[in-house]
Amino acid sequence: MSKQLTSKNKALQKFKKNFWGVSCLAFILLVALAGITAYLWIPDNSNNANQMALNIQLKSPGFQTKVIELPNQKQANTLGTFFLGHEHPNEIIPITTYRFTKDTLHYVPYNAEGKTDLLEKVIPLSTFQQSKKAEIENTSIYSKMYILGTDRYGRDLLSRLILGIRISLSIGFVAVFISLIIGITLGAIGGYFGGKTDTFIMWLINVTWSIPTLLLVIAITLALGKGFYQVFIAVGLTMWVEVARIVRGQVISVKEMQYITAARALGFKDARIIFKHILPNILAPVIVISAANFAAAILVESGLSFLGIGAQPPTPSWGGMIKDHYAYISLGKPYLAIIPGLAIMLSVMSFMLIGNALRDALDVKT
Questions:
Q1: Is 312 helix (H, G, I), strand (E, B) or coil?
Q2: Which of 307, 299, 295, 306 lies closest to 352, judged by CA?
Q3: Which residues are listed as membrane-spanning (predicted)?
């Protein structure tokens, strides 16, 4: 036990000395925290950041306009709001000019030309929680900035980009979890028992391996139906093969060691030998492959969303954002597709660098 603790401490110290590994881990943790707490601080905290204003669509980063905020009378569930955002958010109306009469607020909706002679619209002052004009001006009429601009539906691009973190990291965690359960179980059984059992499992691995990952995911997704959770399952069911191959190879090399022979001589059952004695000693390469699978899951989900069979609108997804705006690359607004593309690139690169750092720290021979 003390020898195991010493090796773990050495691996930890070695990992801490890896600049890129530590930096990428800190980046991933920061991104994850931003995604989890997103609805507490993003500009558009409506459900799925889906608050549209078509008269300010496709505005450039840093765009600023005056808006009127109309209060919603429905009470929001605080806990539900933290996880899902405001189901009935206050309505935001971009405007060009406004004026008050006795009991009415008149305004001209925002227009890119800045025209003030367009048809005015009116809002009764009773709509607002405040009754005085000065109070309404202080609380419900203000300038709003869109840091990354707006998409083609007039939604805040920054808010949807941050909420996209939830999809990418969630699918990574769930897919890796499913792949670990299936891969470790089949790999351990095949490697330990050998014979016909191993032959059948290797046949299953090779058949699955021979099918292109994206094609297999598409087939499973179409069988299960389009949706958020179906994608999780589909990606997880296609990523267990590498885990199973690695676990099988490690089990074959470890099961002939003296401490396993001693465990058999003591009469321990096969299940105990596998889960108590073999698996704890072969987890290092599994941890490394899990980091790579996490990155692969993000890429696969982005590809599925780009093809329209991943996370369905209005759920914000980085792949879906690229799908909605890739045509604008040639129409003078390439950032609409480049920004979510950079988010995917940074996330995948971070997980790959963490995997490399773990490989070096754990001294895995591949």
A1: coil
A2: 295
A3: 20-42, 167-193, 200-222, 228-247, 278-300, 335-358
Contacts of 205 (CB under 8 A, 6+ apart): 186, 241, 244, 245
For the residues of 119-162, what is the DSSP string, one character each? PPEEEEGGGSS--SHHHHHHHTEEEEEETT-B-TTS-BHHHHHH
Residue 124's φ and ψ, nearest 5 degrees, are -65, 140
Which domains does the chain show, CATH number per domain?
Answer: 2-32+158-362 (1.10.3720.10), 51-154 (no CATH)
One-letter identity of residue 127: T
**272 φ/ψ angles, rounded to the nearest 5 degrees:** -70, -40
pTM: 0.88
Q: What is the pLDDT of the chain when averaged over all its residues?
A: 87
The pair of structure tokens assigned to 276 is: 């108590």
Distances, alpha carbon 60 to alpha carbons 25, 114, 298, in Å: 32, 16, 27
CA distance between the termini of the chain: 26
